[in-house]
Specification:
The protein is mainly alpha-helical. It is built from 22 helices and two strands.
Length: about 450
């Protein structure tokens, strides 16, 4: 089964998808005349609530929409995903994650602007946004099979299997094993039971409870994680310049790559690895974030797009870079065979021997649990598009069952499964976004006129 999932994931992550994600992002960046970077300051003003109007259509504020989206992207992609990238690809993998984030900022701007421009009503008349709605509302009813394709794969992609798997591994490696507990199927099932309980209480409370919880958890966990990693970097300050330079040089040399070649050699494989891990981390172009941003209280689609594009910057350019540097400057990427969250834990223990791994455990727990809440919302939204909003609660039962499966499954199988499904979600999302992009450009022009 593990080999089957790996082959499926490798097959869908071929050259066509790479061209679609990076080529599509570059095309959107040029088409918008680099708008995401020119209006960064304005995006921050919108996020701070300067333009909020309680009478605008939608369900949640700009800030809550971003934190709900971030609570799903700021998760194991930043701790375990980066560790996987470096353990396979070396320092150079981080450079290609940056490329993915820069292209991802323009992709996220376009997809989330479209999510507000083409909101649709679900079967109970509630205003909704997301790729499935902008495909049908923007391209027409004849494109519905593409929207259904997104929704079907979205239900699988929203399952929290990587988060739960890595949280289980973290509890085992950081708390149970060092304290002499025996770990195995029984301990993993007990942990899964605790997670099911916490998740059930939050997700059965709906979007408002999810967004309220996320808006409190996300900023505090980013600050805690930021502080811990900065401490690691200060403790190894003499190593920082060396590895920052190495991220650039190794990106084009691929001297530390330990995988199979792709499309002409190791550099091609390293590019693919970086883009794949970047997409897993910031989810730009996958289509999950537009579902959160589509619920924002605004009648200005461009405004929501500008807020959304801050996601990949916070997620990959800041948080992933910090994780990568912590793993690199401590040298654990060369001295240990650990992978995933265990590799990041080794970096923390290296600098803070007694309490470092426990502090990381707090971050891992909050990262994982906050992601658990947002993903359930995404999956339920996909199911409601297919069979109706009054039946979307059935998704929560599938979701809760997947927590138990993930806790007892191998990490590589869970990661490859989500990688592969994310690729199949990206195809309808990017394809529709590229077709509808000129309409976003028209909207940008009229928005800037109104603002001037």
């Amino acid at each position: 089964m593990e080999d089957l999932i790996k082959n499926f994931s490798d097959f869908v992550w071929g050259l066509p998808l790479l061209i679609l994600l990076i080529g599509g992002g570059a095309y959107l960046l040029v088409l918008s005349k680099f708008l995401p970077f020119r209006y960064l300051g304005h995006a921050i003003e919108v996020l701070r609530g300067k333009y909020d109007d309680p009478d605008d259509p939608g369900q949640i504020s700009h800030f809550k929409a971003l934190t709900t989206a971030l609570s799903s992207t700021l998760g194991m992609g930043n701790i375990a995903g980066v560790a996987v990238a470096i353990s396979i690809g070396g320092p150079g993998a981080m450079f290609w994650m940056w490329v993915s984030a820069i292209m991802g900022m323009s992709t996220k701007f376009f997809t989330c602007t479209l999510a507000v421009m083409y909101r649709g009503k679900d079967s109970v008349g509630e205003l909704q946004g997301g790729p499935m709605y902008f495909i049908v509302e923007g391209l027409g009813k004849s494109w519905k099979p593409l929207a259904v394709m997104f929704s079907v794969f979205g239900m699988i992609g929203a399952l929290p299997v990587v988060n739960v798997n890595q949280l289980t591994q973290a509890v085992n490696d950081i708390i149970l094993i060092p304290n002499g507990f025996e770990v195995g199927l029984k301990s993993n099932l007990i942990l899964a039971g605790v997670l099911v309980l916490i998740t059930s209480v939050i997700i059965l409370g709906g979007l408002n409870r999810i967004s309220n919880t996320a808006s409190k958890l996300v900023p505090s966990m980013v600050l805690l994680y930021f502080g811990l990693v900065v401490f690691i970097l200060i403790s190894n300050y003499n190593q920082v310049p060396k590895y920052l330079l190495m991220i650039f040089t190794d990106a084009f040399a691929a001297e530390n790559f330990n995988g199979d070649p792709f499309f002409g050699g190791m550099i091609g494989a390293l590019v693919l690895l970086g883009i794949r891990r970047g997409a897993f981390s910031n989810e730009a172009g996958i289509g999950t974030a537009p579902m959160a941003h589509g619920a924002a209280k605004t009648d200005e689609p461009v405004r929501e797009g500008l807020v959304a594009m801050l996601g990949p910057a916070i997620d990959t350019l800041v948080v992933c870079t910090l994780t990568a540097l912590a793993i690199l400057v401590t040298g654990v990427w060369e001295t240990t065979s650990d992978n995933g969250v265990s590799l990041t834990a080794s970096a923390f223990s290296h600098v803070m021997p007694i309490y470092g791994s426990y502090l990381l455990m707090v971050c891992v727990f909050i990262f994982s649990v906050s992601s658990l809440f947002s993903y359930s919302y995404y999956g339920a939204k996909c199911l409601s598009f297919i069979i109706g909003a009054n039946k979307k609660h059935y998704y929560n039962y599938i979701y809760i069952l997947s927590i138990i499966v993930a806790a007892v499954s191998p990490f590589s199988a869970m990661l490859n499964l989500i990688d592969g499904v994310f690729a199949l979600m990206a195809i309808p999302t990017i394809f529709a976004t590229i077709i509808l992009a000129p309409k976003v450009v028209v909207e940008i022009k009229s928005y800037l006129k109104r603002m001037s």
